[in-house]
Amino acid sequence: MRVQILVGIAAGALLLSGCGGSSDPEQTTPPAGDDTTTEATTEPAGDGDTQASGSVDCANITEEEVAEFAIRAQLFAQVRTVDAMMGMEAVGYDPADMAAFLDKLNGLEGVEGEVYGKPDEGLVVFRAGNDTYAAIVAKGDSATDADFAPLDELEPDIPSWINAQASILDALTQACPDLGS
User: What pTM was estimated for this model as a whole?
Assistant: First the structure.
């Protein structure tokens, strides 16, 4: 599955939820006096793959990992009870695997996505969210629904989580346009 399709799915989810792109104008346009341009920042890499100005290793990211991230990111937006946590575990969510994939995406920091801007804040949100879910998983049977409260402090609603996900997938599309082709 192409990364562009996943970005389209996330964008469709935003439209259905009544949101589109960032509501923060500073997130999508450079501040006054900033000499940053919106021109594409892709440059050919030494092995023939194109890669944006970030240092993400496109060859080290698989379509399967991107698809798994997209599914888990949707669950991050929705799971707020211990009972629902079983659904995450049923689709193979593992906090260590998610952390490892987010580490692979470190190089996306600063990469300008075509629609959603830079994924920097989205990466921070998903790292913090993963840490929260990891703590809940570690508690096992002693976890309570109250343990999910930090997630709502990160992003207050489902469209905010989807926007963070879309910014990451949008930047990944810019950084690794040949992923999935």
Answer: 0.72
